[in-house]
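Q: Is it fine to ask for two folds in a single conversation?
A: Yes, each is treated on its own. Send the first.
Q: Here.
A: Result:
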Amino acid sequence: MAIISFFAFTILVAVIAFVATKNTNEESEDGYFLAGRSLTAGVIAGSLLLTNLSTEQIVGLNGQAYTEGILVMAWETLAAIAMVVTALFLLPRYLKQGITTVPQFLESRYDKMTKSITSALFLSGYVVVLLPIVLYSGALAIVTMFDLPTALGMSETNALWLCVWGIGIIGSIYAIFGGLKAVAVSDTVNAIGLLIGGIMIPLFGLAYIGDGSMMAGMSELWNSNPDKFKVIGDNKSSIPFSTIFTGMMLVQLFYWGTNQVIIQRALAAKNLKEGQKGLLLAAGIKILGPLIVVLPGIIAYHIFEGQLAVPDQAYPKLVSTVLPSALVGLFAAVLFGAILSSFNSALNSSVTLFGLDIYKAYLNKDATDKQVVKYGKLFGVLLAFFAMFIAPLIAKAPDGLFGYLQEVNGCYSIPILTIIVVGYFTKHVPAIAAKIAMLSGVILYSISQFVLKPMVFGADNYPHFLHVMAILFVLNVGIMLLIGQLQPRPQAYSLPYNEKVDITPYAYTKPVGALICLIVVFSYLYFR
């Protein structure tokens, strides 16, 4: 029964995606890379949420909650504020310009070289870090949670390879041959399944604690573990409270407002109104994210009495303990969809960046839309195979590799955010300032985290990496503004208007955005 429900849901998603995309012109740039600029609010919100939510968060964040409690909800709730800022400030400017990739704005604002450097930084992060880790962590979760080696009668290594290639091949079909619309539609269906399946776990968990009563279970959980429901983290926690006002918001703004994998969904909006509604809808749902990626970890801590040797085992073990066997197959399909979404979204965005910012810009400047799509797909195939070969080898890497690779992402996230923010807020800062800021950001962050922190000061005595990000952001903004004063652009920059998209805003963006921000603030006051 579990196997039947797994394949039934997976096939249903594929059929819906095929039907929804069969009339889209996949040979044009807008058709393939931006779904013909046709996405509506619901599709945008669903795709945003599922692109973000995968096994790294479901398993990893619940593992942190098992250890530290509700304070790790900052990664979810503060994302809602970042989406509100994106809806109000960044998206109207993106759609007014009619861009397909974020680096295209940087070419308009600075120069072609700045765009190319940024595209290369994005691609390096996706190729070296994101794609292989999504494949590996997703495959590992499925192998562990559902004991595939026993079920299939094979070694753990072979089961891991099988899952990696299964996820990789199916994800590649969606991302490479279906374009963004296939990715977004499948994401939306999977998002519905993930929200339902994800909420089932804490509900069954609370009922398990309360001997059939969820309310009794919640009361028992709250009264027995009061320290787990304190949202203010001290300096020894993974998220000290002070970081919320420094690097945390910068990381969130980079991820939700400038990261090509995420923002490409909003760039494909039918119009500005649908794009803003999609972001606000996603922000509203994101506030409920802790129910899926935080609360189960606390429930697991209570049920297993804090005795698990590996915190990341908390969620898989909770699922196998509280979920009825009849629902295991459906939940496996939902989890598979979440893993698939993160992989195919990153792959589709990589294809977009290569096709438009590398191939058309340097390899074939006179390329037609059909040629750009064709060679972008070929690049995607090579990239997918590379990720599928590399991912299983991560199992042989030393302990702590995931944390190390996540820290590496800071090398490019803050420099890119810096030049985008300065680019929109100023008119006279020249291209040379952007290049210096990116170079400075990458070098100084690398020296800080990988030389000074481990070799000079020691990890225990060094500022939190989110504080370091904030310091470098302010420093690089200052460098750019100084260069702008000493060597300003000859002509003030003016944002061009491309009439591809109706940029009439959603009338209730500000009041709805304000309400979302107030709910986030209230949640911190309530759990302080």
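Q: Second one now.
A: Result:
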Amino acid sequence: MRGLSKFGVATVLLFAGAAVRALSAPQAGHQGHQGGGPVPREILERPVALRTGIGALTEKVSTSLQEAQAFYDQGLAYVHSYVWIEAIRSFHQALRLDPNLAMAFLGLTDAYIGMHDPATARAAFQRALELAPKLNKREQMWLEIRGRELDYLESNGDSDKYVAYRQAISSALKLNPNDPWLWIQRGLADEGSPLTHGQVGGADTIAFYRTALALAPDNFAAHHYYAHTLENLGRSKEALDETAIYLRMAPAIPHAHHMHGHELMRLGRTEEAIAEFLKTKALEQEYYRTENIPSRYDWHHAHNLQLLAMSYQSLGQMKAAEAAFREAFAVPAYTDFLEFNRKAWPEFLLARGRHEEALKASQELTKSEWPLPRLAGHALAGQALLALDRGDDAQDELNLAERETEQVPVKLVATSPFPNTLRAEFLLRDKKTPEGEALLQDVVKMILARPGPDAWSAARFELEALAKTARQYDDWNLSESIARAMIQHDQTYAGGYFALGLAAEHAGHAAQAREQFAAAEKFWSKADKDLPELRRIQEAVSARR
């Protein structure tokens, strides 16, 4: 895909593929759940009411019952905002009213794909297939498309099945060139994985979403996916405009607020971003309370908390960041990617010098059922052990991390900082400076290459940790280089200026150190009053008086 880094695209698609492989088999601990998935059937099949504020989408389907059509449309709206549980409940409600509504079964297929439950998606599709004689020509076209998509999803990346999936959409477009839903599906298909569902679009998907919007300007799904495409391309101001439209159209949707927060954060409007992430959290908590649904079943909950935590962290508000990271870490994960993201908590603890706590949190990741989180856990545990001067134990963790890489696709290992950050630290510790520097420089390039708001936010702190590692082993040139990369990546993050100030101070460049420390103080103006970095700056200023 043009416009997206090969590192970022490979990462997203390989995570998605790993999730399919993991979820295609029965999962331990989920017996009695729908199709082996993470959410109990009792929740997914509960009756649901019609809602407002979720965005108005409609797609005329074959039913004579107006209420069944309304619940189908509600399911459609929820699918295109990634609210999988409510989408499934809405499609089931439509089927209670009209058991022959085949399109509702196709809606369930799409929603279960979104929930990473291909087995139940297949079961729903089979029900739609049984009703095929009742479908009109347009609906039969969607039966073909969804079937080809599911075939590809289950094939573990078979290129022939991917071609067949895209060909089904192209054939439909030849007959129905003015159908915006087909153009949206064409954009989704261009991402290469049904699991990414609009999140990794690049330059090639822009035309598809723009065409959909030209045909249906009020289709919030197209605005939503177009915003993701723009943010992946680094076009944050345009993406902010699109997320504002999405939010206006669907103000009751947590993800709409969350996405707007993405762009505000990227544009340096961090306090406004925090307000959106907090609004997201409030909407989610009200939903959990009123619907009696535990937050652990909502994939979006921990994701939003992590972005909220990183926003606080960027302002130097470490107490608030800690609370959000801790809350996110406590949420159980049901895919390898969600479990992998839990690494944010031990990373934060390492950054704050709380090595024993970081070790304990990392060890929890090492017990995961998936190799990807285990890889991160062992690497982070090794870093904590090195900080605790337990070199032999750290070496054991590196060996275990390297063993885990054998279970993870090679390309995915190449786009992850693990275990190279730990390897590099050993090299620097053992005075193999050129090798250690080269490895860390490769990690820096990889970190900066990843697209998307989550990767962009995390990159600041990943780079900060690398600069700190370089300083610990007296490699000040490398630390300065990484600090400059941090500032280039985000000119509003105080940590970059602080790291550059430390390098200038070490080199004896007092004026430059004062300049960088002053910039860091400016961007940490809303930080915790007892932030150690601020105390360090004040000590440096006092020493020069």
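Q: Anything structural to flag on that second result?
A: Two points. DSSP finds 29 helices and no strands in the chain. Confidence is low (pLDDT under 50) at residues 1-36.
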